[in-house]
Amino acid sequence: MQSTVGGGCASLQARPLFGGALSAVIPPLATDISELREIPDNQEVFAHPHTDQSLIVELVEYQAQVTDQNAARYHFEDIAGCNKALEPGAFEVSGLVALPKPELALAECSCAWMLTGTQRVSKFNEEARNTVTIHLGVFRLPQFSTEVLITFNDPQSIRPDSSSASAVETHMWTLQDFRSLLQTLTLHDPGLFG
Fold first, then answer.
1. Which end of the chain is less congested by CB atoms within 10 angstroms, N or C?
2. 123-170 confidence digits (pLDDT tens)
3. Do residues 123 and 132 make contact, with C-beta atoms less than 8 angstroms apart?
């Protein structure tokens, strides 16, 4: 099940997700948060040990009422609601592109989109709101009544009174790391979707 991407010494190992039902190349130094605290069964969560960057791979219900082109925006706004970032100026979409299917390992998806935006969010219901760039990938799998969401949270400015203030303000994971994750997401066991 383990596959490699790239060539030579720099090849990256695909990491099993959801007990091996999916796999993808996760950026280096990713800490599996389920080893630290309980994570919902429909999520895999990774964090960088020195920055406040995080990655979430999530299985959600297929939203049949949402057009393909609006699926990423729908989920971005849903995340904004969960982050209590729906007021004017608290969230903004800056880019939306379709991901070409020939570049994706997840051939089972009907389509895939990537959205980039920002949200002003607080952690743990704190007053301090940090500005976070959110890169969101959505893979639509109507035949399984499922969508796979992959979210890359990349803080841009962390307030000094935030619990994240001690995080290193460098950006270790890049947009290219995120694109690599999207392109290498692979389904090994459709039974994952029930």
1. C
2. 656 666 678 899 999 999 999 999 999 999 998 776 555 545 555 455
3. no
With respect to residue 5, please indicate whether it lies within any of the assigned structural domains: no
Q: How many distinct structural domains can be found in the chain?
A: 1
Q: Which residue has the tokens 């309980």?
A: 38
* pLDDT tens per residue, range 81-92: 887 877 777 888
pTM for the whole structure:
0.85
In 3D, which of 126, 72, 63 has the Cα closest to residue 99?
Answer: 72
How many helices (H) does the chain have, and how many strands (E)? 2, 11
- Residues 6+ positions from 117 with CB-CB distance below 8 Å: 76, 91, 92, 93, 94, 95, 133, 134, 136
CATH number for position 38: 3.40.1000.10
